[in-house]
Structure formats: C-alpha cells, structure tokens
Design goal:
single chain, Rossmann fold, 2 domains, 6-stranded parallel beta sheet, 8 helices, globular
C-alpha cells in the first residue's frame, strides 16, 4: 500500500512523535510505501486567504467557487497542490494528532480547510447535467482508507459512553464522518492512547504493539459502517424513519 501519514504535533520527542516514528518503521518493515506531511516541521500555513487561489484581494472572495475555479485551472498555491498530489498518490491516510480542546490542533484543521477545496474533496458530481453530488462514501477519495491516531490526557473511562469528557467516537464524528467519510474515504476505527501525559513504559509498549497490529491490518480491517447518502437510507438528507426507528443522535448514521 501507499500510505500518507499526516502528523500534527509540535514536538518530535513527544509520545506522539515516538508513535509516528514507530509507525513509519512498521510500514517500511511491512513493505508499504509511505510519505509524510509533518505539519509543524513544514511550517504549514493553516489560514485560508486569497493567495491560495491567485485571487485579486481587492475583489470579494467567495471561497467555494473561487477554490473550485483555482483547482480546475491549476492556480492553487504550490503547497496545496503538493498535498493534493500526496492524497491522490495514497491508498490510505493516517491522520495523527493529540486531542486538544475536544478536537484537532488548529494547524491540522487549517490543513483540511486549505487542501480539501471544492472540486477536489467536495462539490464532486457524477458526469452529466443531472449527476448526483458524490459525498458520504462516494467522491474523489472513494476506495481509499483512513485512520485516526490520537492521544488524550484523560483516562479511557472519562472518554467512554458515560464519561464526563464525552464519548470519543462522538468527539471524532466531525472528522471521521463529516470530513473523511464525506469525501469518500473508508474510515477505520481510531487508535487512541489515553493518559498520554503520564503513560508508563509498559503502557507505551502496549500502545506501540497495538499500532503495529493496526498497521499490519490496514488493508483488511473492517471500516466503521457509516451509511451512504446516495443509496436510499436518506430522504432529502434525513434518515428514513424506518431505519434506527425511535433513535436519534450520531449513532443512527451507522448501519450497526
């Protein structure tokens, strides 16, 4: 497989840095090709502005339509085009970050904001004048896989179904469902390391072993069973009343 590892942590000597290094060594040992986007090391600019699109800053910037035009005309800035080329190259994408304030670091959010432009990651349609919009399981990145690796300072129970911090699967729903699945990527269950600021050596060894196993099965593991938008489960964007009847919340968007 060809694997793109997107890494968003400012300290290479951190727990996350050690896991990233272990992961890249494992991919090499397994015979996979890999490329990396180490966002802090790259000095990635997370801010969308007119310069991304070679747009005249004196005129009104409409990000969606302007980004589509720039993508189609190949006038996106060089740093964005390079990241899109990496995504086109990859069979699988690892998104690796510490959980900060219930979400991803700003630099990673800005990577998605700038790279996942209209025409490339969203606003993709079937050919023809009546073609459907391809999203939630369809689109440019359909057929590729994605997996989140994250760390959290709290213990596992506090990020469980009744934990004070909220259920981790629900906290990750915006990126797993609303970003990765939306653009067509099949999303594998996340790998989370808990108590990251006080992890003893034995538990780090366990986390590294789990990471190696998750990478060994990257091509074969069963993805999260998110529902597809265009396959009859939804009517005008709303789940049919006979599916997950009587239930509400984020879990209804999975088939099991």
């Amino acid at each position: 497989m060809k694997v793109l590892w997107i890494f968003a942590h400012p300290e290479p000597r951190s727990l996350n840095g050690a896991l990233r290094d272990e992961g890249l060594r494992t991919l090499t040992a397994l015979g996979h090709e890999h490329r990396q986007s180490d966002l802090y090391a790259m000095g990635w600019n997370p801010v969308v502005d007119a310069a991304d699109f070679d747009h005249d800053p004196t005129s009104r910037l409409v990000v969606g339509s302007t980004s589509r035009r720039a993508f189609e005309n190949r006038t996106l800035s060089a740093d964005i085009r390079l990241e899109q080329e990496k995504l086109d190259w990859a069979d699988a994408v690892i998104v690796h970050f510490p959980l900060w304030w219930y979400g991803m670091p700003a630099i990673l959010k800005g990577w998605f904001d700038r790279v996942f432009v209209k025409g490339f990651a969203y606003g993709v349609r079937e050919p023809g004048p009546d073609g459907r919009t391809l999203r939630y399981g369809e689109g440019r990145m359909a057929g590729k896989r994605a997996m989140i690796i994250t760390s959290a300072g709290s213990g596992e129970a506090a990020l469980g179904p009744r934990g004070v911090n909220g259920d981790l699967d629900e906290l990750l729903f915006p990126i797993q469902h609303g970003t990765l699945w939306y653009t067509g990527l099949s999303v594998l269950p996340p790998l989370a390391v808990y108590g990251a600021d006080r992890l003893p050596d034995a538990e780090y060894a366990d986390a590294a072993a789990e990471l190696r196993e998750r990478l060994r099965t990257l091509a074969t593991a069963t993805p999260i069973p998110f529902r597809r938008q265009n396959h009859g489960d939804y009517d005008n964007g709303v789940l049919r009343p006979d599916l997950a009847a009587g239930r509400r919340g984020l879990s209804v968007h999975q088939t099991t």
